[in-house]
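Researcher: Good morning. I'm working through a list of sequences from a screen, and I'd like to move beyond sequence-only analysis. For each chain I'm collecting a predicted structure so we can compare shapes side by side. This is the next one on the list. No need for commentary yet; just the structure.
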Amino acid sequence: MVEIFLTLAKDHAITLVVAATVVCIVASWLFFDLFERVRGTVGLSRLQWLGFAALAGGLGVWTTHFIATLGYRPDFAFSFDPDMTAASALISVATVGLPAALTALTDRTWLKLLGGAVTGAGIVLMHVAGMAALTNCGVEQPAAGAVPIALASAALCALAMALPERTRPGIRIALAVAAVSLVHFGLIAGTAIVPVGSEPSGIDRSILGFLVGIVVICLALSAGALVTSSSKLAEQKQREALFSNALTNMSNGLLVIGAGGRIDLFNDRLVTLFDIRPEGVAIGMPWQRYLANLAERLGWNEARLGRVIDNHTQWFALDRTTYLEHALEDGRTISVSCRPIMGGGAVLTYDDVTAERQAQREVERLAFHDPLTGLPNRRKFAQELEAAYEGRRAATLFLIDLDRFKIVNDTLGHAAGDWLLTECGVRMGRVCERGELVARLAGDEFAVLSLSCDEEEAAGLSRRIIATLSDPFLIHGRMVSVGCSIGMASTRDAASADVMIQHADLALYKAKTLGRGRNQRYEAGMQEAAMRRSVLEADLRGALERGEFTLLYQPLYRIEDRSVLGFEALIRWQHPARGFISPGEFIPVAEETGLIREIGLWIVEEACRHVRQWPDGIHVAVNVSPVQLRSEGFPGEVARLLEAAGVSPDRLEIELTETALVEDSELIAASLRTLRDSGIRVAMDDFGTGYSSLAHLRKFDLDCIKIDLSFVQTAPFDPAAAAVLHAVVQLARGLGVGTVGEGVETEEQFEVLRQAGCEVAQGYLLGRPMTAMQAYALCRAETRQNVRRALARRSAVAAV
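Model: Good morning. Structure tokens for this chain:
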């Protein structure tokens, strides 16, 4: 190595050595730039860049060698053989530039190493040929010294060509320059050059310098052109990289079909979307073949493949984009769009929209189905009902309301209520076995739509629904009964869906007023009755403030001596325009609207004010609605009114009907216990007309029962009624409960009660309802009569 540097300093012109090094660096950069272009292109373009790279690499080494040779300064003049000089250039291109350029065509490391080694050996061969071009001198190169240099050159070039692609270009250039420099200056240092002859022959140094200069200029111009184009190429590569990155990261699969009917472009998403094998899609493949491969992958038969190909052919011929969706056998939904390209071909995009369609179906399900029961909701039901009218189809609507659902919610909790609603939906679905639509409208309200107007079928279905919902439900180990009421209307009753729903609702209201657990079909006149009820409700809301209510009192007589024990307060409404309105007409409206709470407290307050004026021992009975008893504050309000009036609690008796105890019995029983604990008497009105009278006698702690007038008025001529009346009196006596016979209108009825052992009687025979002043007068007359009776008894005793 020291000998090489000494020879370099002694026998070479430093300026030309530097120039040779610069040319070698520029030529190496030019070669590797062209080398990258070879790797980045295909087809004829790749062959062109391969030729340019071979020329640049070969001529670069050739010019480096001869510039350095021109800088060699022996003690004699020499010239260059033109043929051998030209041959050395060809040798350099063939053995140096071409093998190096060919390594761009392979990704195999061992082939790159082989190409680089051949290139290194070619540099040595080119040097030997270049030295052989010298004339009028002899060149002696020891083979032993040339072999290590050749091996080192081959190793350096092999390493330069086999380095990974991400290696910096400067390293490759440095290795190439080192190989060229090592060969030239290493071999020159061990070469003996001696003069032969006196006159130089061939081309002299100046001509060769001119030729080499031309080559250098060409290399420099090529380098300059590449510098300019490299910037554009870098921008193009950047755009291509962005495009490639965009294709790779597209959420859609992409397929571009050229005008010739072959695939020009596709992305990775297309491959992964359909799990296509490598041979399933390729650049240049006919699109029909691609679809055939896709059909095989997706399991399509020949008929379906034929339809798909025909469809694509039609889409390509259109002047608009086609959109459609494919439902695949694996459950996925693929959206396909086909946009034809002017001049032929098309761009197809594929998108997996399975999640979106599932979400859409779920939204639609939630929009048209009840989330608790899974049944169609009010919106879906309304659509089906409208469709029946639009299609002029016969239909019957059943509105179903659970009768005692609130009890379940209040006693067992909302979770139990939710389970009950779901189970009711299941039961109705089993009953509706002819394709009827079962829906949950709201709360505990259901509906059934039957596409039939047959009245017998509708009646049968309604009875089956009532029966199945009346069967007990087992909830948390408890048997619970709810039942239902049904209102029915048909397309024959109404001209539109809204009117039909209104009619069914009116029928449902009528079914409830008849005692629940019933089915009722819409009848003529219900609409007018509902309008009257609406007017009545509006008038009722201001009746109390306007002072339109009054209380009348019907006396209660002890049967033993026909003495007055108390009075039953009866409310009356004197409407300024309509006159007298029966309690049987406005009390149900007051209960439904909740106005009964305010009216009921007014009755208690008014009755307490009047009873205070009556003699001690006379009590007043007030009818109370279950709506009032379900109110937690009712017992406290009654106690407050008694205290304000200064009336003892034992002078007030609360009456409620037996049917009122059926719903919310636990809550009502609690209110009754609170009232009795405060000293207020509790009586059951209309005893015997309910479903479980004896059970109520046992469950509720009562002070008195009032036997319904239906038994009292028929007992004189109906042995069965008389037997029931006697049994009730005896039962009550055994339980320590007082009895009152209602509706006594004849002496025969009064006598039956007396013989049965009933304690108290009430009816028109004994006294009609009267005003508070009349009741007061009756009490005073009763008192005077009692006084006269007492005096007469004393006189009779004294006479004896």
